[in-house]
User: Fold EGF-like domain-containing protein from Rotaria socialis.
Amino acid sequence: MSSFHYLFIFGNLLLIFISLTKAASLDERCDSNPECIGTGLICHTNLCQCDAPWYKPCNTVCEVQQQSVYEGDTCRVDDNCMRHARCDNSSKKCVCKETFSSFNGLCRKKYNETCAGNDECVSNICDISLRRCTCQDGSEPLNDGRCRRILARLYLNWAQANESKDFCYNDDSCLNILATCRNDGNRMEKFCQCPPNGYTTDFNNQKCIANEIERLSPMNEQTSTDNTTCVFCKDNNAVCANVGNKDTCWCRAGYDKVGNECQNIRYKFIFPTAMDSAQHSFSSTCSINGSIESVQDSLCSCAAYQEYDAATRRCKNIERQWISEHFEYGICTRIKSDAVAQGPINALCPPPLQCRANGDKYVCSCGPNKFLQSDAIGVRCVYRLGKPAENSSCPMNADFINNTCVCKAGYNQVNEDRGCELVLEHQETLADCSTSGSVAANNSCKTSFGGAARYCRPGVCRCDPTISFRDPVPVVCYSLLGVSQPEPNCPPGSKPPNAGTCECKGENRKSNDNRRCDPKSLLYNWNEATVNQADLQRGDCAALYSGWLADFNDTASIKVCQCAPIAFKSPSGVECWPLVYTDLTGSVSACNIPNSMQSITNSRRCECQSGYRPSNLMKRDCVRIPGRLDESIVINIPDVNPITASDCRALFGVLAELNNSRCVCPDDISFANNDGSRCHGILNKPTGFQTLISSDCPQHASTKITGTCQCNEGFVSSADNRICTTVDIPLVGTKEPLSANSCTNFTTDNCIAKYGTDSFCENNQCWCNRKSSFNINDNRCESFSNYIFPGLHERHNVSCDVDADCTRDNVNIDTVECTHRTSASSDYKVCVCKHGLFLNPFTQTCESRCPSDCNNRANSVCNGYNCVCKQGFIEENNTCVPVKEQIQLYKPCNSSFVATENIDVTCSSCNRGECAFSYRDTGFQCAKFNFDNDRCVTQGPNVCNALIGNSRCFEEENKCVCESGYYRDENLCALSVDSRCTTPEQCGSNGICSGQRCRCAEGKRVQNAIDAFGRSIQRCINDNTNGADQIRFSFISVLFFICVRIFFI
Assistant:
């Protein structure tokens, strides 16, 4: 049979075989691999699936995974292999192409081998002119064909570096991690040097030693010119910050300089989360008890120029006082949580002050050469004395002359050039005074202290003792009585000068020292005086005193100023007040005793007002009549009216009436309150009194209808109509009110009356409006906006560093965290409730407002007010069950699918489940990428840093390494000892961040090491000098003694 016939028979048999064979596509059922028709398909778990990890599903086909397999690992096709590698047909492993060598799973060419592009070379540099792989500047070739960076040492100058031919190319080419690569300004070659500011160089040990400064900013006048630049600060609570273009040590956020130490000034304060303030109205009504607030960061906060008072929980004015020329009106510089200076902060400086630069700080200032002065014009900024001035805004008693402010003649410049002083000195001599005072200086003294004042020395005047004397109140020079002088200034009690001489008025007599005009007689009550003033006349008394004075004539046996028998001396001692309930000798012009009035029936008598009577027989006062309702009130003072109905109404309200010396409440329309102090109208019953007011009604009642007491809205009257009470309706919780009212037996007014204005009625129960209020002590709805928070400009005082800073007796560390609240308040870390918890601003605690059974509900978590299912679960019949449409590896998915709880699988752009970032596809399962053991190039350049910060994928070694200056420590990359830090975590498990500097913790020690790039670093390790090292020494010692015994015995 011919070959054609054989071929024909074989072809027919093949067609019959294919027709009898079951063909399946992606995701269809199968029993063996041949049934799966399509590129990259295999039969796995009785389904046609892509041959993972070499092929992956994309929509309905399998796509080859390109450059995903390292040299030496299993492959399917050439495209699986990394660049410059192929898939060997026999071994099915990736092998390097000819002329390429393997380097940690990658195929590259060695140093000096021919190349066509950078990606072919292990050094990643192909010299195009030579078409050969070469090393980059600052590197040298190794025997294995790779390149190694040459690390340069520290040198004092170019000559030393040139002698060793040890130049650098960039900062990374310096052996010391702190060194910088720069030239000397004269030559092109660069050499490694310590940073120019803040460091000194130890050439013997090849170290850059950072300045550790003890002096703290803000500095005083004497030390502000210090040019030492800080890197670290000796005080552990200080940071090196740049303020006013100068690096100095400042106390960190929450600390202030006291002496030369940083002291904690924080008060613990908790803020709501951003979700909390978005869900609740913390800022709906920002005006509380006269405080000045503004809405900041969605909270009622203290406004600019205000500060939070922790004692009252209110805002108060920021008060600024002059400190010194260098500090002016106080510091307005703050250090933020990231150790960066914040300033200028104008909100800390009440106008007209502004926050301005002054040396190493920002201060509240009026501006150059100015200060704050309060005068008749108001509070304003004026120029300091003797400084350049642009206008005539000068201090009091100063003149604007030649573009500067100078004190007026005679005045002395005081108070750091901020005042002009002129005092009247108490010295009765001019002998030691200057005789060269100008006329202007003398005139200043006369203008301020009187015509007899004389200039003595700058800022000091004295009274001329030959014609005057100094009076302490007011401070002035008074003329001596009876002494002629050119500019008399007569003392009190004297008459206008005659021919330059001061004399006493007729009712006064001159003192022996010629300095006083004393009254001829003091004022006495009737018959109290015993001293006779022989030259006293009745007119003298009238000139000295007023009121009801007693008469006397020239023949009287005792001449004295005294009140008439119907009057008494007033508390001031210069008036005679009429007695009450006493007939006067004339019509009443004024009743002077408090609570007294002219009698309605007798124009010549003063009486006490209704409800008042004299306290005793002397009738010199009017006091409230003592007694209560239904008590007998007896007044036993002669000529004084007994209790009247008018008195009852004044004492106990308009409804009170008199009954046999008792004030009583008429039973038909009123009743006495509990303490018997007032008659209250019976509720809902007309009293007939048009003048009835709310105080005549029971509590929570008012006169909505004239003359009738009725309960206020939301209150109901008791069965006896004597009490307004709230209704018996419970407060059951918080919720958002419905648009339709579902209360049938009660009203929202009933809830407001009992629980506050933020409550409402729903389903015959009271609720707090969740948006605006919270339930306080289970008996009131408290508005969120009743609470004030520190303003953004004063968050320095409430900042924190770690969660432990936020705890106190009633605050659990598990409920609060130290973080940045929002982007608007990112300058400072503050204490904030943890996610899912709400702030109770009354108790300053964080609380859950979920149903109480949430903790007992499987697979659920509390989120705000709701108990919700965890990720990957959905609620069914009040239980959390797994979501049916979860993303599964290689399976079809879309945006509605839910990720599994361990989030190792995500939905790709091909609408298929794939291993998430930082997971490796190992074939039908996802393995977490291992930082220390897995190769990283195929995972992408960011995988290392995503797992552990401050790391990268080092392509030359194809592994994750810590960045230069860091070392591997447990689950992080830690900074080298003496590196600058901001958090303790940066310094590793054996280190601490103290004073912005990584140091070894107590019980740890420093060990010299190198980082992944060969640079010198130091790390912290356990101090085993008392443990392992001793054991190591003991073992060596034993070996030593054994050797000695063998060889010498």
Residues 643-683 form one domain.
